[in-house]
Amino acid sequence: MTADIVIDFTRSEGAVLRLIGQVERRGFEVTSMTMAEHGAGPARLTLGVAPRDASRSFDTLSRHVAKIHGVTSVRAAERAPFMERAS
């Protein structure tokens, strides 16, 4: 199961590395990453993440990421399973 974690944060030196590092330390693998460009203001980072084992919780991950300096909001949204069209 994968999910998207959407993180709004204040831009600062090393901020993205801190966010990705926290995700990795909490036992999740980053599968995709998108960062929206909003000029010099706040930034939005969307990480596709997958737990390394079944004991990992997206809620716990969100709470830990929210504690990082500069983070203003975090939300997790489970992805719908990808289905290929039969031919």
Task: Give a description of the structure.
The protein has helices at 15-25, 58-66, and strands spanning 3-9, 28-36, 43-51, 71-78. The chain has 87 residues and is an alpha+beta fold. It has a single domain, classed as Alpha-Beta Plaits. β2 and β3 (43-51) form a beta hairpin.
Can you give me a brief rundown of this structure?
This protein is an alpha+beta fold and 87 residues long. It has helices at residues 15-25, 58-66, and strands at 3-9, 28-36, 43-51, 71-78.
Give the SSE order as H and E letters. Answer: EHEEHE
Shape: globular
Secondary-structure-based class equals: alpha+beta
Distance between the termini: 25 Å
User: What share of the residues does DSSP label as strand, in percent?
Assistant: 35-45%
Name the CATH superfamily assignment. Answer: ACT domain
CATH fold label: Alpha-Beta Plaits
Low-pLDDT parts are: none
CATH class category label? Alpha Beta
Q: How many runs of DSSP E, i.e. beta strands?
A: 4
Number of domains: 1
Using only C-alpha atoms, the radius of gyration works out to 14 Å
Order of strands side by side in the largest beta sheet? Answer: 2-3-1-4
> What is the count of helical runs?
2
Integer average pLDDT: 88
Sheet of most strands = 4 strands, antiparallel
* CATH architectural designation: 2-Layer Sandwich
